[in-house]
């Protein structure tokens, strides 16, 4: 059984993330969405809220792709999380070159710890490529329209959170 791990903060899950999840499902039998607990990014949503949003989106995606998708909170090393969930593949999304430098280092460090876990990079469809959770939150705070970036249910939760 091929198991993939797609880690991130998902604060909140966007249409960029769901596009990567959909593509990732074509590569594995089970996709584990690793929701990072302690990211240093100072998440707007609690871990429970982020996991709940990921689970709600994944229920739909799981039916669409006929792939098992599960959310898995983690706060240990990514490579240890991959071992915990039995993943042979780590899936990451690549946006612009700005993502590359960080991802390049991550692959190098993770390989030094375990060379048997392969990292695979996927790119979202053009219209979703520029989406970043951080910018979606900023646009929402300033009263902008975020309907092109997140699903209606995430939009509702985000607007509730901002008040
Ligand atoms: P963000 O960087 O938006 O805060 P995460 O830390 O949750 O998001 O990102 C998790 C993974 O999803 C990372 O590999 C990131 O590069 C990828 N990702 C996020 N948004 C997109 C997007 N619009 N297109 C492709 N990959 C993305």
Question: In brief, what are we looking at here?
Answer:
The protein has helices at 15-25, 47-65, 78-85, 97-113, 133-141, 152-162; strands at 3-8, 30-36, 68-74, 89-93, 118-122. With 163 residues, it is α/β, with parallel strands linked by helices. Helix 4 links the parallel strand 4 and strand 5.
Notes on the structure:
With 163 residues, this protein is α/β, with parallel strands linked by helices. The chain has one domain (3-129): Rossmann fold. Helices cover 46% and strands 18% of the residues. Strands 3-2-1-4-5 form a five-stranded parallel beta sheet, sandwiched between helices. Helix 1 (15-25) packs across helix 2 (47-65). The longest helix is centred in the middle third of the chain and has 19 residues, at 47-65. Adenosine-5'-diphosphate is lined by residues 8-10, 14, 16-17, 20, 92-93, 95, 99, 124, 128-129, 131-134. Residues 8-10, 14, 16-17, 20, 92-93, 95, 99, 124, 128-129, 131-134 line the site of adenosine-5'-diphosphate.
Distinct bound molecules: adenosine-5'-diphosphate
Main β sheet profile: 5 strands, parallel
Q: How would you spell out the order of helices and strands?
A: EHEHEHEHEHH
Query: How many independent structural domains?
Result: 1
């Amino acid at each position: 059984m091929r198991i993939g791990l797609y880690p991130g903060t998902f604060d909140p899950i966007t249409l960029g993330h769901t596009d990567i999840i959909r593509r990732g499902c074509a590569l594995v039998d089970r996709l584990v969405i690793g929701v990072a607990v302690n990211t240093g990014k100072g998440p707007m949503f609690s871990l429970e809220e982020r996991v709940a949003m990921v689970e709600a989106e994944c229920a739909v995606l799981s039916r669409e792709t006929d792939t098992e998708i599960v959310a898995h909170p983690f706060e240990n090393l990514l490579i240890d999380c991959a071992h915990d969930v039995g993943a042979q593949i780590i899936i990451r999304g690549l946006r612009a070159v700005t993502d590359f430098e960080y991802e390049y280092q991550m692959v190098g460090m993770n390989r030094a710890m375990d060379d048997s876990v392969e990292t695979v990079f996927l790119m979202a469809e053009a219209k979703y490529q520029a989406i970043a959770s951080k910018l979606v939150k900023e646009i929402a705070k300033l009263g902008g329209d975020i309907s092109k970036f997140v699903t209606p249910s995430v939009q509702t939760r985000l607007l509730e959170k901002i008040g």
